[in-house]
Each structure stands twice: as C-alpha cells, then as structure tokens.
Write a structure and sequence with these properties.
Layout lengths: L5 E13 L4 E6 L4 H4 L5 E4 L4 E11 L2 E6 L5 H7 L3 E7 L12 H4 L3 E4 L4 E10 L4 E7 L2 E6 L7 E3 L4 E4 L15
C-alpha cells in the first residue's frame, strides 16, 4: 500500500491556564476548531512530537478552553503556555469550499498586480476579527492587505500566485495623493 504524504499544520497556540484542573485557553489557528479540538482528537507540540489528547473543549466568551488527558493540573497547564499545537494532514487535502484557502496554501505564493507585474510574496496570514489579512513581503518590507475580493480578486494556488488590486499605497509606500 502506498503511503500518503502528510504536512504538519499549526492548529493553535496554548495561552494561559484556565482554572485548576489543567484546562488551557487555545488561540485557534485553524478554520476547523471543532474538528481539531473535538473530544478524542490528538495534537502534538511543535518540535517535540509530544502528543496531547483532548478530553474536553468548550467555547467561553469567544475563547476556546481545552483540557488534555496528559495535563492533570494548573502547573501542567502553565508549562504548556506558549506551545504551538500541530497536526499532520494529507498534503493534498483541500477545503470543501473552493472559495476558502488554508494558510499553508497561501504562504509563499507569488503576488502580482493586475497587469501581471511581480510585486512580492505572501509571508503570512493574520486572522483578525473583521477579516483575514495577508502579510505580503515586498522587497523586505511587510505590507498588510485585507483578504477581501475587492483587493485580492484572484487566488490561483495551482499557478502559485495571487493577484492584488493596483491601488496606490497598497503594496508600496510611495502613494501619490489623488488630486
């Protein structure tokens, strides 16, 4: 049987301890938190391959509170603080909705303007309350571009590029004021 290639994907970062029983607040870094942090699901601590098994999870005031079988008390929860949580997923796995993209699909894509001129590279994606924001590296400078159709009309993962609207100031610092 042929083994499927997998990639390691970040799904969260452990924040502060919550309560005395070892629960932690998880800063979610996945579009599928209910699946990734469902009871019985396992995650690993990045760089260690230490496995953690979810025993309970719930949302409280917009934060995900998670308990792991391997963490018995508040001290254990405090030791996890700052840990990045990862899972292995099939390399060719894609979101069900063709209009959705995972961070790992976008990082490293070439950025071109509407005329096709190379402008930079997608460095990261910030998940903000209002919308996601692309962090684009343009000659060593970071530019933040809201990930909305008006500013990013085309995403072509297969071609390895995205198109960003040609709006002065969006990908450069030398925007001329409209007169």
């Amino acid at each position: 049987m042929e083994q499927q290639a997998t990639v390691e994907v970040v799904v969260g970062r452990v924040g502060r301890a919550h309560g005395l029983r070892g629960d932690v607040v998880v800063e979610v870094r996945t579009d599928e938190p209910d699946e990734r942090f469902d009871v019985g699901a396992t995650v690993c601590i990045e760089g260690t391959r230490r496995e953690l098994t979810v025993t309970r999870s719930r949302w409280a005031r917009g934060s995900l509170i998670v308990a792991f079988k391997e963490v018995a008390d508040r001290n254990g929860a405090e030791e996890l603080r700052g840990s990045v949580l990862v899972v292995d997923v099939e390399a060719d796995e894609e979101p069900a909705d063709p209009e959705e993209f995972w961070d790992r699909q976008l990082r490293g894509l070439a950025v071109v303007d509407e005329s096709g001129q190379a402008r930079g590279t997608v460095k990261d994606i910030l998940h903000m309350p209002a919308q996601d924001v692309l962090v684009i590296d343009v000659d060593g400078d970071e530019h933040l571009v809201p990930f909305v159709r008006q500013l990013v009309p085309t995403v072509d993962v297969a071609a390895g590029q995205i198109v960003v609207a040609s709006i002065p100031g969006l990908l450069d610092d030398d925007a001329e004021e409209a007169r």
